[in-house]
Amino acid sequence: MNFSSICCRFFLVTINLIVLIFGVLIIVNGTTAIINYKENTESVKQVSESQNHTSDAPDTAPSYKVLIIVLVYGVALSLLCLLAICGSCCGNSCKTALLLFAFFQGLIILAEITWFVLVLIGIVKLWIANPIEGQKIVQEITPAVGIVFSVLLVLEVLQVIGALIIFSEDEPAEKIRPE
């Protein structure tokens, strides 16, 4: 293993540790949001029953799906980071881990895009159902979601680049040794 490979492995581990922190924060916040959502849903149902409105209950379903997806996303992201960290610390035997990492990273990116679209749909539905609350969410939550989403995408691109560099450096090393 040469110096550039060691630096690349260190870089990949560092990036994955940063993303792992994001993943843990997403798990914690997602769990808290689901608990709060259940409490809020009960109060909304009570209000809608007192006003004889039953159409509000189905409109909240996509929001709950978004919270579940966010929680699963946080768990998957954290496990993926651990896989990449193990793969980058295993020397030349990390090829399988790096291939798994690349495959699951693609799934994670698809999940992120799905999650982002569902968040937008949820915000639009909420805005239509309750313009005041919708405007409040757009002002308070949307910028934070956009920043987190953008930062995570940049970090994940760096993850994939680092993994590909390590994978391409390990392969020639194995081919040279038998000769």
TrEMBL record:
It comes from Plakobranchus ocellatus. Coiled coil: none annotated. It holds the Pfam family Tetraspanin. The keyword Cell membrane does not apply. The chain crosses the membrane at residues 12-35, 66-86, 98-124, 144-167. The keyword Transmembrane helix applies. It comes from the Eukaryota. It is found in: Membrane. InterPro entries: Tetraspanin/Peripherin. The lineage of its organism: Eukaryota, Metazoa, Spiralia, Lophotrochozoa, Mollusca. It is a multi-pass membrane protein. This is Tetraspanin family protein. Keywords: Membrane, Transmembrane, Transmembrane helix. One of its GO terms (cellular component) is membrane.
